[in-house]
Amino acid sequence: MTGAPALRILDLTLALILLILLAPIWLLRAVLALISGSRLFDPAEMVGRDRQPFTRLSFAGPLPGRELAVLFNILSGDLAFTGPRPLTADEAATVPAQAAIRFSVRPGLFSPYQLQQRTGIAHDPESDLDRAFVERLSVRQSLGLIIRSLIAGLLGGSERPIPPVLDFFGVPIANVTMDAALDWIAERVLNKSAADTLPASNHPGASRHPSLSKEGKRLDSFSGAKALLAFVNPDCLNIAYTHDRYRTVLQQAARVLPDGIGLKIGCRMRGLGLAANVNGTDLFPRLCERAARDSFSLFLLGARPGIAELVAENMQARYPSLTIAGIQHGYFSPAEEVDLIARINASQAGVLLVAFGVPRQELWLAEHHDQLLPPVRMGVGGLFDFYSGRIPRAPLWLREIGLEWVWRLIQEPGRMWRRYLLGNPLFLYRVWKQARQEIKR
To answer: pTM of the predicted model, to two decimals?
Structure first.
C-alpha cells in the first residue's frame, strides 16, 4: 500500500506524543496494576496483519485507564491507530473470503465499524465496512476516523444495559437492531407471525405502560394481522408529550422504532443503551432490497406530486426485482379517500408507506386502520424527499458523529430551526425530568 510508510509515521508520532503527555497517568496506572493484581498487564491473544497472532495489552485490574497500555502495541507495530477491529482467532476464522483484504493492514484502535456502533448506525456488515476502509486507507482517512471516533465517543459513552423496550414519556419503543426490524416487517407481510411478541422491559416504567400486558404482548387495536409501525425522534416525542391522540396511537401501535441520535443521548441520560438507530431513512433501501428478495410489494403514498414516482424509479433502478404496487401523492381531497383506499387494497401491497409528516400520517393510518388491507403500514415523514433526490442526505461522516440534524437545519433553516434549536433542548429537559422521577421511585 503506497501510504503505509506515512501511516506508520503517523502512528509512531501520535503514540510517542501521547506517551509523553500521559506519562504520569500511565506510570500511576502501571503501579496500581502491580499493587492490585501482582502483574502489570492483562494479555489478550488476537490476530493481526497477515493473520499473525499478537498479544493485545491492557493494564491489569478493573480500574480506569486499562486501555492506556495499548500504546505499547502501537509502538511495536502490532496495532495501528486506525484499521479493522482486532479479532480473536475464532472471529478471524469466520471472515468471508471477499473481506480477507482486512488482514493486509494492521488492526486498529479505532475502526469504522466501532465508530458506527457508537452512534447506532452500524447497519452494514462489518466485513463490508472493513473492505471499503482498507481500499481507501490514507493519512487523511486515518486522521478523519480518529477525530470522528473521539466525537462519537462523547455521545456513545460506556456500555450500558440494553432493555428490549424503552419508555419515553409513556411511549413504548422497541429497542431492536435494524436486521430485527426488517425481519419483523417481513414476517408480518409473509404471514409468518400472527401476533406481536415484543418482550416487556425490566427497567422502571415499562411494565406500567397501559398497552403492554405482564407478558409483554400488545393489547391494542393497531397490531395483530394488520400492523401499524411508527418511527419516533425527539421531535415526535415532543409532539406526543402534549398531543393526546397522537400519543395514544403510538401507545397502541404494533411497534415503534427509535429514530435519531437524540434518543441515544436520552438513553444515556437514563443509564440505558440503544441497540441501534433504526431510522426510516436507513431502513427504506434495506426494506426495498428485502421486498425484492422475498417477493412482496410496496405502496408509496404522500409527498408532493411527482415525488413518489421518482422514488419508485430510483429504487427500482437499484433493485430491478422490486415491485411498487402503487403510487399516490399526498395532495388528495377527503372525497377522494374512498377511491384511494380501494386502490391501495386492490394493489395487494405488503407494505404501505405514508409520507404525510408527523402526526398527520399516524393519525390517518389509525383512522383508516380497519379499512386498509396491507399487513404492514408505516409513517415515513420526509423520506420520499431524500430518495427522490429532491433533498440530499447528510454525508456519512456527519451521520457517524450524530450531526445529521445540523445538515437538515442548514438545508431548511426556516422550517427546522424550532424543531432542532428549541425542540432538542426541550426533549433533553423532559428526559432529565423523567430520569429524576425514575430515581425517586
So the answer is: 0.87
